[in-house]
User: Which sequence fits this backbone?
């Protein structure tokens, strides 16, 4: 019960952080910003803060499919919560992964439902090579998946096997 409470509180805080960063990007870089700049160079040749309205998902796939993507996010979240003992083990690493995954899904679903698009703002590039713009919620999801993969290689404690 304690883990559930901590997870819910952490998810709420991370979703709030994601929303604040997206609002800052919208206010400072968006179409209505006083400067009318949609990108600001932070580290020359490597990193920009940008404003992108992504009406698709990862790497801009499924453009214009806002409602199916929102429905998929809600269904994925429901399945993860319902089967959480199967997906997430008992340790701290699993608890962090679970929290980050929920936070990322909720953050992007909120954008899709209330804006009709997801705001992306982190823009990395190296010379002509450009990584698609992403946001804090995307980062939460990617780190969560990385932690889950890492956790799959770690030995399980006796009597505390996954899903037990």
Assistant:
């Amino acid at each position: 019960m304690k883990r559930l409470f901590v997870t819910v509180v952490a998810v709420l805080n991370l979703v709030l952080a994601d929303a604040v960063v997206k609002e800052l990007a919208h206010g400072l870089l968006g179409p209505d910003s006083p400067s009318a700049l949609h990108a600001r160079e932070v580290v020359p040749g490597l990193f920009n803060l940008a404003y992108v309205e992504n009406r698709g998902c990862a790497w801009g796939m499924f453009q214009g499919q806002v409602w199916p993507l929102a429905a998929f996010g809600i269904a994925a979240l429901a399945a993860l919560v319902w089967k959480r003992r199967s997906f997430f083990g008992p340790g701290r690493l699993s608890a962090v992964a679970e929290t980050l995954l929920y936070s990322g899904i909720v953050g992007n679903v909120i954008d899709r439902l209330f804006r009709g698009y997801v705001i992306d703002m982190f823009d990395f590039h190296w010379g002509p090579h450009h990584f698609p713009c992403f946001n804090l919620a995307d980062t939460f999801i990617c780190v969560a998946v990385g932690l889950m993969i890492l956790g799959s290689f770690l030995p399980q404690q006796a009597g505390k096997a996954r899903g037990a």
The chain has a mean pLDDT of 88. Residues 2-153 form one domain. The chain has one domain: 2-153. The helical segments are 2-29, 66-82, 84-87, 92-114, 136-153.
